[in-house]
Design a protein that fits this description.
Elements (H helix, E strand, L loop, with lengths): L3 H5 L7 H15 L8 H17 L2 H8 L41 H9 L18 E7 L1 H6 L1 E6 L5 E6 L8 E4 L15 E7 L5 E4 L2 E8 L1 H6 L1 E5 L6 E5 L8 E4 L5 E2 L2 E2 L2 E7 L7 H9 L12
Parallel strand pairs: 1-5, 7-13
Antiparallel strand pairs: 2-3, 4-5, 6-7, 8-9, 10-13, 11-12
């Protein structure tokens, strides 16, 4: 037989996908079901099938590339005259079996089943086949995951669909879209779409279950004298009243301002962080220099 790469019209560096695509194209063109009575097409199909048996199999392809077997799959140095060549006992018989060993299905059978399911072939070709399922990675914003929404995604075959993002979605969760995958064959059901969700981090919120946590910068004056400050939430800013003498690290709770999921809402925990001006302040420096109170803020660490 001719070089199997030459038969399939691919280079020796061709990928598995390229080899499979070339085989499918040639097999469909020359298969006996599509070229009934054409002896040349039958012979060509035999040659194509034999070539794919070599380079379509990883192990055989590697052996052929290393020169361990020839284009017929025989070990190098094999003498066909002693093994029934030219029609004698043991000669290679080209036949087209849709089943593999003990009723299993060969790789070629899988391909032919896809290509010729409509030509009335026997075996699994006429059985209903489930459509292809797709697995897609989808990144959503923190707000989308918390509040829910709708996203339009593009499927591998070019079709786009709208996906509902449920409120309270967590990082690492999956969304299964039943029946939204590839179409089935011979009346089989369509496949599914599995979305693997990644939630983008938020610039200042962190999530703890359905609760949210926030570090809230406050001025020295607000911490000492107390007062009202604005706190951002997922539904808009709210007013929080600071008691006088609020220390840095104090945690205050805003009930129901966390994430709502399953009919229940979490809380927003606000940690106060006393923050000095970014630029030096002469008045604050003068005050600190004249402040007489002495205390040890690190006493608990001793």
């Amino acid at each position: 037989m001719r070089d199997p790469y030459e038969v399939l019209g691919v280079s020796k560096s061709a990928s598995e996908a390229e080899i499979k695509k070339a085989f499918r194209t040639l097999a469909k063109k020359h298969h006996p079901d599509t070229s009934k009575g054409d002896e040349k097409s039958k012979q060509r199909f035999q040659e194509i099938n034999s070539a794919y048996e070599i380079v379509g199999d990883k192990e055989k392809r590697a052996k052929f590339d290393r020169g361990e077997i020839d284009a017929n799959g025989n070990p190098r140095g094999f003498d066909p005259r002693g093994h029934g060549a030219e029609g004698g006992p043991g000669a290679r018989d080209f036949h087209f079996s849709w089943g593999g060993p003990e009723g299993g299905e060969t790789a070629e059978g899988d391909i032919f089943s896809e290509l010729f399911s409509g030509f009335g072939g026997r075996g699994r070709r006429n059985q209903p086949r489930r459509g292809e399922s797709y697995e897609i990675a989808l990144t959503v914003s923190f707000e989308e995951a918390a509040r829910g929404g709708t996203r339009r995604i593009l499927l591998p075959e070019g079709r786009d669909i709208d996906v509902r993002i449920p409120a309270g979605l967590k990082d690492g969760q999956q969304i299964r879209l039943k029946g939204q995958g590839g179409p089935g064959g011979n009346g089989g059901p369509p496949g599914d779409v599995m979305l693997n969700i990644a939630v983008a981090p938020h610039p200042f919120y962190t999530r703890d279950g359905n609760d949210l946590r926030l570090d809230l910068p406050v001025t020295l004056k607000e911490a000492v004298l107390g007062g009202k400050v604005n706190v951002p939430t997922l539904t808009g800013a709210v007013t929080l009243t600071l008691p006088p003498g609020s220390n840095s690290g104090t945690v205050m709770r805003l009930k129901g301002k966390g994430i709502t999921a399953g009919g229940a809402s979490g809380d927003l925990y606000v940690k106060l962080v006393v923050t000095l001006p970014e630029k030096p302040d002469a008045e604050l420096t003068k005050f600190a220099e004249g402040w007489k109170t002495e205390y040890d803020p690190r006493a608990k660490l001793k």
